[in-house]
Amino acid sequence: EFTTNRRCFEEDFKTQVQAKEWLELEEDAQKAYVMGLLDRLEVVSRERRLKVARAVLYLAQGTFGECDSEVDVLHWSRYNCFLLYQMGTFSAFLELLHMEIDNSQACSSALRKPAISIADSTELRVLLSVMYLLVENIRLERETDSCRWRTARETFRTELSFSMHNEEPFALLLFSMVTKFCSGLAPHFPIKKVLLLLWKVVMFTLGGFEHLQVLKIQKRAELGLPPLTEDSIQVVKSMRAASPPSYTLDLGESQLAPPPSKLRGRRGSRRQLLTKQDSLDIYNERDLFKTEEPATEEEEESAGDGERTLDGELDLLEQDPLVPPPPSQASLSAERVAFPKGLPWAPKVRQKDIEHFLEMSRNKFIGFTLGQDTDTLVGLPRPIHESVKTLKQVTRVGSQSSGIGTNQGKFDYQSPSYWLFYQVHSVFPLQIALLKILLAAAPTSKAKTDSINILADVLPEEMPITVLQSMKLGIDVNRHKEIIVKSISALLLLLLKHFRLNHIYQFEYVSQHLVFANCIPLILKFFNQNILSYITAKNSISVLDYPCCTIQDLPELTTESLEAGDNNQFCWRNLFSCINLLRLLNKLTKWKHSRTMMLVVFKSAPILKRALKVKQAMLQLYVLKLLKIQTKYLGRQWRKSNMKTMSAIYQKVRHRMNDDWAYGNDIDARPWDFQAEECTLRANIEAFNSRRYDKPQDSEFSPVDNCLQSVLGQRLDLPEDFHYSYELWLEREVFSQPICWEELLQNH
């Protein structure tokens, strides 16, 4: 397709410009040619439109036919994208995208086909590719950008964030494509490109993780709260990975009892064990993956049967001896000096924890409580005074703590996240659609007749007939699924974090829908595989990657070269996806006892422990967080048999005072009415949605007018811009909703 795009451009360019190449033209001449291209897009012939769209795509790809290096291709791609946007290319392609989405002929043709191939989405893929390159190139900021480019970037961000004229926000259009694809009405949509573009648009309009940190600091300053003392991303960067739990170091002392002949040397062996532990920390600083080997299927199956079997599997995975010979004392001290001392995180306390501590103390010493009063300490001993003082020193007040659930709560109505949430609020099937696609793309999913076909934009018209073609297609399919998982995991996490910052009930609304759509068991199912093999997978062909494939002559591919793969030790894409899914799971379960119990019921502990084999600090941190919140429910025997994991939790995860996670004596560990907890949260969310988004009603018991003529004759107050977009509203809310008239008549 790169070659086809180049040919379409060169054929059109020669008819408009004589004896010159694109890079030789002045800027005014380039603008004039782009204007001509956009004019030629407005033709009736579908084939001619596609050729002109391919010519525009070649410009967005960097006119690689006139470049000598990959750096030049990327430079001219960025330059051309800014030029194309300034000439109105994005708006023109947005109109074409609307036409393709509403193309009922293409939808019905795809529904009739027994097998959909990549040829059924050619026009959509070209349009989405141009829009993706425009968004990605303009989104990225550089110090060398001119003032004109910076202005264009802000204009583009505003254009994507809000409703313009009679069009809905661009992100909502892409959301509707996702739901339409999952409903089976448009199986030919190239869902990978749609999800990638959707993720980048949300990142561009709302901001990425670094921008989120800036927004968090600004919001705390506006509310008069103290500044943040640490940046989570920077703290994690300085952490080092822990060694995976091993069989010999994770069992209790009763299971490690030495034989009678060695009982006399027990004290010496204990000292030797401590020395080995120090050696293990130094050993951990070596290559991340040289000592790890992928487990076989039999080992993976047996690993899920119990913790002891899992620990045995981890021990067998080590190629070299787990503990190297003890080094000299001098080398040990030299190694220790290089590492920072102390715990990585400052401890935290919630206001609720202080109230609970004072309630227990007052009941014990004076026989009554004072509710939420944390300042009155009359009648309490001096040590209690000191304890409260210490707890208040490490109390962190969140930006959502004041005014929550009231009209006085801080709420940014003009932020892009508000408008996005307001639109997504009416598109509830979106969360289910994203999880359906994620399930179909998970490596552990098995093909089912009722599952979504996510391979429509990767399968060729003619299936492979040689071994080489089959291997290449297999790599393409796996890469295709990996990109889909990456896009969905990053999109969900980014939306949750922005909703959490904008208003807590926005976050809780989306979170609860994800939980009700079985997001928690889905993520656990994703991790119920050989995660180390998934992260070290080599499902890419480097010589076919952009922009390498546009400059260099492609070597002949052989089965041996495909089996060898690239030289990377691990796949950043899959590591990124795993971390995102773990963070998403943490977001859903944090401070929610009912959801924590779901982790226990679904036996997540051995699945999560298996993920600790990946020696990457950030991934291990979020695995240990998930293990920490459920240790109190797993029982004393589990904690006794997993002391290495408990030690890693102590070293890596933030401490919260009064959190009795290591012993299980906390009041929250007792039997709990979990259903009531979710119902209360849902009632609060519905009250928030009604207060913020629904029109105020005069009375809950106002009479209902059942007269058809009277109802139709009423005059309703509609927004000023409603007459611009009422056709879109009708299409989405009325015409697209299936109505079973027979069932309606039977019920009435």
UniProtKB/TrEMBL annotation:
Residues 294-304 have a biased composition (Acidic residues). Belongs to the STRIP family. InterPro entries: Far11/STRP, Far11/STRP_C, Far11/STRP_N. One of its GO terms (cellular component) is cytosol. Residues 381-726 form the Far11/STRP C-terminal domain. The gene is STRIP2. GO terms for biological process: cytoskeleton organization. Residues 1-279 form the Far11/STRP N-terminal domain. Residues 246-270, 285-307 are annotated as: Disordered. This is Striatin interacting protein 2. PANTHER family: PROTEIN REQUIRED FOR HYPHAL ANASTOMOSIS HAM-2, STRIATIN-INTERACTING PROTEIN 2. It comes from the Eukaryota.
